[in-house]
Protein 1
Amino acid sequence: MRDFKKSWVYIYEGGKIIVDKKIIKQMKEQNEISIELLKAKYLPLILYILKSFQLSYEDQEECINDVLLKVYNSIENYNEKTSLKNYVALITRRVALNYIRKNKQNPLFYEDMDIFGTYDYYDSLDWDFIIKKLKHSEKTLFYKHYYYFQSIETIALESGATYKSVESRLYRLRKKLRKIIQEENDYEQK
C-alpha cells in the first residue's frame, strides 16, 4: 500500500481513495466531479453539524447544496494551512447560521454559540494551529460547543458537570482563544 503523508485525509469511495488534495486540485481546475467527491467524503460531517440546528429535511437539503457550492466557489480563498475538513465545517456552520438568520428561526441561541462571528477575518486564521495550543479538555469543550453546536446543558450532562461550571469554562476558553488569536496577529505584524 502507498505511504500517504499524515496531512492527507482519505476515505474509500467505490474502492478508490479520495484524498483532500485531489478534491482541492479538482476544484481549482473547475472540475464539477470535485463536488461529488467532496459530498462523498464530507456529507456525514455536514449532516452532523446541521443536525444541531434542528432544520427540516428540506432545509437541510438546501443547506447541503449551499455548503457544497460555497466550498466549490470559494476554494481559491482556501488557506491550505487549515484542513479541508475544518474549512467545510466552518462553511457549514456559516451557511446554517445565515439560513437561520434569513428565516428568523431562533437566531439568538445560535448567535451566542458562533465564536467565529460573521467576519471573513476568521476564515483566514489557522484554526488547526490555534486549537493545538489548547489543553485536551479545552479542545474537547471547543469542539463540542463551537464545532458541533452542542448546548451547554448537553455538555454538562455528558461530563457530569453543572451548567454554571460548563458556562464558566466556555467563558475562560473564549478569553484564551482571543488571547491566542491576538498573539498570532501581533507575531504576524512583526
Protein 2
Amino acid sequence: MTSFKFPPVYNYEPFWTIQNHENQRKKQIELWGNLVLAFMKAINKTEMDVITTLDTPLFNNKKLQRRLRKMDAEMIIDNLVATNNAKWLDDQKIRARIIWRTPEQWGTIIYKYIDGIGQNGNVLTFEELINGDEVKKQPFYKIQPDVFLEAVLDLQTKGKARVYQNPTLIESGVKFI
C-alpha cells in the first residue's frame, strides 16, 4: 500500500465510535472525511469499494482492534457527497468516487504536463496519458478513465482541448490546444 501517516486522532478510541451528541458527531464525521480524502490522495485512488475498504487500515485499526461498520462508512461518504468531495457510483452505496481533486484541478495538472513536454497540437490517447511509461511519475498516472474524461472535458469547455470520445473510453483521444 503506502506509508500513509495516520493523524493522532486515528489512535484515539472514541474516534472509532460515532458520537451521539450532534456537535461532536458533526466534527467527528468531518475529521473522518478529511482522513478519507488524505488517505485516498496518498494512495492515488479516486474510487472506493466501501465493503472492501472496511478491511483496510483506513477503516480498520488493528492496534485498537476497532473497525467501522458499513453504516458508519456510509455516513462519512454521505457527508463527503454533501460537500461535493464524493459521489456514490451505485444505489446500494457500495462504490464511491472520492473527489480529492476537482476535474478543473486535474485538468490544470494534465495541461501543464502536456505543455511542458511540448505535445500541444498532437492527438494522444487516454491509454498513453493514463497508463504510459512516460507518465509514471505524474499525479494522473493510473487515474480512472472517467475522471480523466471529466478533466479533459473541463479543458475542452475552456478551449484548451478537443476530446475524441470512443465507446471504449480508454481508447478515446484528446488534442491539447
Protein 3
Amino acid sequence: MRQGAGLNLADIPASAARDESGVTEAIAHFGRKHLPLPLRLIRDPAFAIRALRYALRLPTPLRTRDRWVLEQVILPAVEERSGNQTVVFVGCDYYTWHYKRFFKGHRYITIDPDQGRARFGGKEHHVDFMSNLPLLLAAGSVDAIICNGVVGFGVNDPQEADRSFTACANVLKPGGLLVLGWTPGSCSFDPMKTAAISRHFEPGGLPSLGSNFVETPTAYRQTFAILSRRAVTG
C-alpha cells in the first residue's frame, strides 16, 4: 500500500526541529512520571513558553518536523479537500487544542479517553476510546479522521488497533480519509499490516503531500499514511 515519492523533506525549515530532542526523550521515557510542574517550568524553557502561550489562549505547537508536516501540509489539505464537512481528531493534548482553528465551518469532533485532556478538545468532545466511535457517530457520517500519535501510546496491541480501525471504517463515508500517524519504535506491530486496514482501506492522497506514505526525518521516524475508505460493496 506504500506508494508515491512523498513530500520534499528538504523544504522543512530547520526551525521546525527546535523541540525534537525533548520529544525524543519524552518518547523514550513514555509512561514515567513527569517532573513536578514548577520544576519542569524552570528546567524546560520550551515547555514554559508553551505553558504561557496556552494560558494566553495562543497556539502552542511542538516545533518538530513531523508536526510541521502535520500542521503545515496535512491539516490544511484535509480542510481544503472537497466535501470534508465532518472531521474527527483522535487524541488531545496542550499542543493540539488549537487545531480546531484549521476546521472553522466544519463539524470538528475530538475524542480522547482521558478525562483530564477534555479541556484540550473541541466544542464537540467525547471522553471515550476510538474503538467506540460507532456508538457515538452514525455509520458513514464522517469525512475524515486524523489519528496521530495514538498507536503505541494508548492503542498498544494489534487487536485493539484492529478494533479501532474497524470503528473508523464504520463511521467514515466511502472515500473518506483516515490520516494515520505513528512512531515505529514505540509500536510492537506495524499498524499498516492489521486486518482492518487491508480490509477497509486503500491508498488515499492529498495533492499537497504528493504521497500516501511519508516517513519524517526525525530520530523517532514519525510516519504518516493517508488512507481512503473503500467503497462498501453489498
Protein 4
Amino acid sequence: MKNISHSPTVGRIRLKPNRVKPIRLVWLALPLVLLGLATGLCGCASVGHNFNNTAVQNLELGQMQSSEYRSVFGEKPAATSTTSTADGTFEVARYTYAYANLGSAKGRTLILEFKDGKLNAFEYLSSFDEDHKAIPFDQATRITNRVSTKSEVVNILGKPTGKALCPTTLDDYKGKCDKCVEVWSWQSMSSISTFGAAYGGARPTIQNVFIGFDKDGIVSEVTTGAVNSK
C-alpha cells in the first residue's frame, strides 16, 4: 500500500498539513479528498493520519480545552486556524483520513472548533463501515418545531454526529444561529467506487439533518437534505 499522507499532491488536490486554513464545510472537505484519491489511484493508497476517531463519541460541548485535543485525537491535524472576532477567539482544527484500493475509497473527517479555549462545535463524517450507524433520516418528520425537546430528538434520531453552540465560525452551523442558540447535526456519507470516480461515475452522497434549539432546549428549526458531490 502506498501511503501518501505527507505528499503535497493527491490527484489534483494540493494538501499542506498544518498550514492550510481548514475547510469549514464538513460535507465538502471529505469528498474532495476522496475524489482526488480515487481518480489518481494506481493501487492502494491513503491520505492523512488515521486519528483516534473512537473518541468522537465522548465529545461534549464546553468540556474539552483547546490544549487537550491533540493528546486525544493525535498530534498531526490536517489543518488548523485561529480567528478573532467580536464574539471571541475561535480555534479550528481538522483531522482527515482517507483510504482507497482498486475497489473503493473511504474516509473520515473531524472538525473541532474552540471558542476562547473551550470546545464550541464539532462535526464528524465518515464512510468507513465500522463508523456507520443507521440514522433514520425519514423519521425527522416526527420532530415538531416549538414542541420537541432534546431528549425526544435523540430518541428519534439517535446521538448526533455534530453539535455547535452559537455563535460559531463553522459554515454548516453559523447560518442557523439567527434562530437558534445550539445546533445539532446528523450526517452520513456513502463510500465511492474508485473505478466509477476515475471514469466520471458515481460520487459520494451525503444525507444530513440539522436541528436548532432555543435557550430552553426546544426545537426551533429542522432542515434536511442530501448532497451529491460532483
